[in-house]
Task: structure prediction
Amino acid sequence: METAAEIVQHSGGVIGVSWLTIVLPLLGAAILLLGGRRTDRWGHLLGVAMSLASFVVAVLVFVELLGFGPDQRRRVVELYDFLPGGTIDVKMGLLLDPLSISFALLITGVGSLIHIYSIGYMAHDPNRRRFFAYLNLFIAAMLLLVLADNYLGLYVGWEGVGLASYLLIGFWQHKPSAAAAAKKAFIVNRVGDMGLALGIFVIFTTFGTVAFGPVMSGVPQASQGTLTLIGLALLLGACGKSAQLPLQSWLLDAMEGPTPVSALIHAATMVTAGVYLVVRSGPIYVGAPTAALVVTIVGVATLLAGAIIGTAKDDIKKALAGSTMSQIGYMMLAAGLGPVGYAFAIAHLIAHGFFKASMFLGAGSVMHAMNDEVDMRKFGGLASKMKITWITFGLGYLAIIGFPLLSGYWTKDGIIETAMEHNPILGWLAVIGAGITGFYMSRLFFMTFHGKPRWEKDVHPHESPAVMTWPLIILSIGSVFGGGFLIAGNRFMEFLAPAVGRPEEMPSFHPFSVTGLATLALVAVGVAYAWMRYGRAEVPAVAPRGSFLTVFARRDLYGDAINEALFMRPGQWLTRLAVYFDNRGVDGLVNGLAALIGGTSGRLRRVQTGFVRSYALSIFFGAALLVGAWFVVGNL
Amino acid sequence: MPWLSILMGVPVVGALAVAAVPKGNDKLAKQLTLAVSLVVLALTLAMATQFDPSGARDQFSEVYSWIPSFGVHYAVAVDGIALVLIALAVVLVPIVVLASWHDADRPEAKRSVKTYFALILVLEAMMIGVFAATDIFLFYVFFEAMLIPMYFMIGSYGGAQRSYAAVKFLLYSLFGGLLMLVAVIALYVVADKGTFLQPELIGVIKDPATQKWLFLGFFIAFAVKAPLWPFHTWLPDAAAQAPAGAAVLLVGVLDKVGTYGMLRFCLELFPDAAKFFTPLVIALSVIGIVYGAIVAIGQTDMKRLIAYTSISHFGFITMGVFAMTADAGSGATLYMVNHGFSTGALFLLAGFLINRRGSQYIADYGGVQKVAPVLAGTFLVAGLSSLSLPGLSTFVSEFLVLIGTYERYIVPSIIALSGMVLAAVYILWMYQRMMTGPTAEKVKAFPDLNLREKVVVVPLLALLIGFGFFPKPLLDVINPAVQQTLTSVHVQPFTPAIPVTAEKKGAGQ
Result:
């Protein structure tokens, strides 16, 4: 295996001002938040403009990067001395390389489309300006996360996107459920962030720096135990941000946020940050096979769990959220496989960014038409009423189930094949996951767009305005061609190799391998079964009680129940105990002592004008103590 | 130029002038107080520009003999640590004055309005003095004298249970202070140098047992002041009953004298004893971090909640002080400053809320965001600074404390990490209960922040955000002073397991 290329210092050119990608949307957020109501009229336009400007800079940086030879495409731009501590000294810089620029293009590209879509989607919200401020804040933080050249910078972005996510999930704060979901997301993420912070502590105390370049070049000298510890700590962080088991519970609740938020943050970009972290830390996992194995196990477990949850949800957004968990599970699995998997992980991440964003925005378009209804049992037969949404959603749907030659087919199959070579158990579980995906996505698609209409009374579905449909069209083009473009001819692998290392053998794509055919067959079974149940057959308007398994899936595999039993209730109990103890125990002890020495605690309470008296008393005590001490010291 | 004496003299003269304002002209008294505090702020900034971080340790030094027969001096000077803490105090005072504009006005209380503001100025002079004193006896005098204005601010102008809280505060502090007095005198006697000047007493006490006893005398006084678990129970009462402005000065500045004293006196004068007691202190700190946060979660009164968060935060500071690494020491010092801004903003905003609603209870609020978005937004930012969100200066200090502690004590650092999660719980749950959801009936008529209130809050938030992205100006002043402190303590500097060579570092690879 070849390691990644050397990082070179860079100044000048567009890369020299690549910080503009972060600063522009940050500026947008600042203007919109500080400007207040005065900016209401044009706030959304500024938000879109800043996001688009950031995208343009990212494209120019990308073009400039392509101008260098492949081995020269890892460039650092030093910005300023961020944290000169006593020993630690973190200089903030941006690392522009094939990996980070791929993310930057996805974030600003898909991000801009979602900004544009939100103009229409949020048109009637009185707080639309604030919404765009938060979206801009998110773009800035997410770009810092992927562009920073060190773990601390990444951490700042990491918690920054957590803040943006908190603000946007809770955007409709007057709804108690939204406020609770926002808080839950932040707290669960903080559990993960503890892991990331710990990882950074170990990295610094081991290597004396937190910059990616020096850390990775020091990895071969570090012990396997240390690397395993770092790997597992970082994985905990990744699990929080990417909603992987066991920190997955917040993502389904996060659907309380406006739908563009679900598309941008909780599908296309932020939740994939964990995958970025693992791939960016590649050499650490290469040196720590145990940690890498755990990554793959987490990935497989989550891809199955998310898929199973997706099968039982009637809320269209929650079904899609389960699917997001599951798809990120695939990426995690690939990232855990090492350099052979990295390109597939990131390619699937990008393809997923397109097709999942397209479907979430499509779902938003449907909700827009159905008076914000999310229950798919009240949809049905929408295909004829909203053609553009139906087609674009349909293409996203075909892409995710891996319909031949669409995006997901290339990228997901790559992951499954690589996993199969690595470890057949992982491989077959991933194949089963693909079959379940075929079922739940078809169920979702048929329940929404086909069958007989089951609409509520005064619902009159209509197609969304152009400002919403154009982003759908562009995203669906990406869902169709993105995967093939990246994977065919190993184009993306070659591009990414200088950043993540080159595997010994470049994988080749076998369209008719046993694994590939088995996957296709299972997907077909899933689609067919979904058609029988939800396409051809009548869908009951009220969910049937369902078997034990259905309830299990509907309740998110009892994730919340487990959290409640293990953490929330003991936590509440502990809190109450601690408060009681603090009021009676510690305070009581001290008051009791006071009672022993100088009277009763009741008297202390009754002292109203007793300042002089008590002061005198204290002085007397002090003097006595002093004399006593003097006596003791003198006699020593 | 005798900078420090001027800095103390101006507020004292100002306080006399405010006290001399004729009765019934409260507005003039307030304006005068504000003007004086702004002059002090300007003078401090002017002094800070003269400070040379790479120069001698003690700068702007003044030494005059005070009680020659005992070797007591009026001796003041600042190093980087004292300088940033004085800066913290003088920044907070004008903000507190403006925030407290109507706090003393309650006619039914029949309290003199101008006295409240004169007390603030007296307190300001003492806060500057206590951080500037380099004579241990002088330090002790300021340490005790500070109690008096604060006692009256709580006892006369506080909430319903103000007398109880004020007396409790006083008794606790006096108890600690007297222990310290014993230790101060014993130090003088045992050292036998005929002086109380701190720099001349460094390294003088060699006997381990003596060091331990003297250390304890100082340490317990500082632990009560800070306050460190389990000496903390006076703080929630005092902070909940004090007027918001006084609570800011109490928790934001006065309590820092405790942690400052640990760094300046406990560590430097008794290094071996400090090392001996380090495991105990770190254990108490970690307990304080977790315990304070858990009890904060369970509070129903927002001022008590903020007080308990401070107990958790003080745990971080003492842990950083006693970890005795350069990173943790710088982090702890920076934490003292940032915590002043962060908790200051939270207390003042809580005060604004209480003025509107007439209740400290969290349950009496709900849905404030809808009617007063600026108030809710600033409250959220202040809250986020309390949970140390990156991008706010509190993150920098908490990160430095944790990583600096990790360099030497792995397990305590990991346990303390849980404070990150607990902080998110206490802040965001409070925010959820007060600001989100359906708007409570009695909240519906809430006005948003007025201009005066904005002028109070904006500088604090600006400092938190500004130093969050660019902490270098503060750290450049703090780092050399912490380094010198650690040199007096004789600790080995931290070295990474696999240091990446310098030229590799430079090339960014």
